[in-house]
Amino acid sequence: MTDVHGENWLAREELAERMIPLIGSLRRERDVITSLHGHRLLGLSATGIVEVHDRVARLGHAPLALEDTLAVLEAVHALAPGAASIDVARLVGDRPGTGASLEEYLAEVLAPASGAVAADPTDVVLYGFGRIGRLLARILIAHTGGGSGLRLRAIVVRRGSENDLVKRASLLQRDSVHGSFAGSVTVDEQAEQIIANGTRIQVIYSDDPASIDYAAYDIHDAIVVDNTGRWRDEAGLSQHLRSNGVARVLLTAPGKSPLKNIVHGINHDRVEESDRILSAASCTTNAITPVLAAIDEAYGVVKGHVETVHSFTNDQNLIDNFHKGDRRGRSAVLNMVITETGAAKAVSKALPQLEGRLTGSSIRVPTPDVSLAVLHLTIERPATKAQVNDYLRRVSLHSKLRQQIDYVESPEVVSTDFVGSHRAGIVDGLATIADDDTLILYVWYDNEFGYSCQVIRVLETMAGSHPVVLPTRREVTLEG
Fold it and tell me: ω before 112 within 30° of 0 (cis)?
């Protein structure tokens, strides 16, 4: 592959500009989603495409030349595969050095997508429009292609003021952590709709999840995503199912038994068509469970403690005031706050073999996003730092957990470098400590966006709209 170092910037920008119509055409006409090691290319500017190439190199992946990406995109476009999620970087990196031509190689790798058709559209309603709700909206809008798959149809909120609609639209368009919305956001006040990149989102004002007539808005068999956290049990969440037009419910918080807590990549195969209410667990559970699963498979986890250094959230006070929770009444922006986390125990809902082996606690810190989990583990088989890191790096690149686990080796990365990460958790290889049967791992995670991506993956599983992933992911072992 071509060396990217020292390339002329204008030449690289010109190459990226040539990719944009190919990326858009593949999405609109073929329902093909393209990415570089999980970083989506759709909707990026030429500068953004160049930056993604540089970013994947900074995050420890092999350097990727824009010429190689363009050649693969042109060949994929010519082959016209069916609906699929295609990692261009892996197509480049996995290609044999000799033998078949690029077209022959791609035809073989993309064969599983031949004739694949996009899933029928599924209506999605966001019940609540807070931090997670608005990020889910951004992702759903970005995923909108030819009208197939998940379709964001409505949000349900309580009316907050006379200009509520304008304020909701503004919060979707502007975000202090995640930046501006990529596109256009307007409002239709007469219809009470937010229009984002052509997607009309009905705003429904209600405080009763059981009495909304969604069918009146031409919404049918919808999946309602409850972002409020007001109800976490079957009785409370089943209220949504009494509303006309609702088929299923997904909770964006840990659900109480007997609800299934789904961590995509780990136990999403437990999702059944008969399930009416599911939970996407918590951001921390999603961040640590895939890493724990990989380590348990390779080394065996005897026991462990999970300490999370977690960004503050809206349930804390900006300045000292009454709060029903212990310590959470103290100023979130001025203090580190020790609090509880159920994430360690919740891991066993996805990984039953770790039942009773993990403890956990949390420290809330004065940052608005991106958290850090420290996994202090006792393992069955001895490990070295180099061996563990090599294994987790390969897991992040090639395994079935590559959408969940990322890996980085850099002496300069800090929490803000992971804002917007699509992965559930990112292993910081330089921080790994391994001493015989003791293993300490540091796992970064964007507790807002990374978690929202996991929620979308569960939604796709529920709707049967998750595309075929190519190249096919392979099993990764300690040996190779």
Answer: no
Among all residues, which ones are annotated catalytic? Answer: 283
Residue-level pLDDT, tens digit, the chain, 480 residues: 444 445 589 999 999 999 999 999 998 888 899 999 878 898 899 999 999 999 877 766 778 999 999 999 999 999 989 889 999 998 998 888 767 789 989 999 999 888 767 678 999 999 999 999 999 999 999 887 655 689 999 999 999 898 999 999 999 999 999 999 989 999 999 999 999 999 999 999 999 999 999 999 999 999 999 999 899 999 999 999 999 999 999 999 999 989 999 999 999 999 999 999 999 999 999 999 999 999 999 999 999 999 999 999 999 999 999 999 899 999 999 999 999 888 988 999 999 999 999 999 999 999 999 999 999 999 999 999 999 999 999 999 889 998 999 999 999 999 999 999 999 999 999 999 999 999 999 999 999 999 999 999 999 999 998 778 888 877 888 876
By three-state DSSP, how is residue 76 classified? helix
Six token digits for residue 201: 């989102």
* Beta partners for residue 470, in sequence order: 86
SS3 86: strand
Cβ-based neighbours of 139, under 8 Å, separated by 6 or more: 452, 453, 456
**What ranges make up the beta strands (E) of 320-357?**
337-339
Determine the angle formed by the axes of helices 66-79 and 102-109, rounding to 10 degrees. Answer: 60
Residues sharing a CB contact under 8 Å with residue 169, sequence separation 6 or more, in sequence order: 185, 186, 187, 194
DSSP code per residue over 310-376: EE--TTS-SSS---SSTTTTS-TTT--EEE---HHHHHHHH-GGGTTSEEEEEEEES-SS-EEEEEE
Distances (CA, A) of 314 to 136, 177, 225, 303, 333: 17, 14, 19, 32, 11
Q: Which amino acid type is present at position 35? A: S
Q: Which residue has the tokens 């958290």?
A: 371
Do 122-253 and 284-447 agree at the fold level? no
Enumerate the domain spans of the chain. 9-113, 122-253, 284-447
Reduced to 3 states (helix: H, G, I; strand: E, B; else coil), residue 180 is coil
- Candidates 3.40.50.720, 3.90.400.10, 3.40.630.10, 3.60.15.10; correct CATH number of 122-253? 3.40.50.720
Strands lying side by side in the sheet with 193-196: 185-188, 193-196, 199-205, 150-157, 122-127, 222-226, 246-251, 277-279, 260-261
Answer yes or no: are the C-beta atoms of 219 and 123 closer than 8 Å. Answer: yes
* CATH superfamily label, 284-447: Dihydrodipicolinate Reductase; domain 2 (3.30.360.10)
Burial of residue 349, with CB atoms counted within 10 A of its CB: 0-12 exposed, 13-18 middle, 19 or more buried: buried
Residue with tokens 């922006």: 333
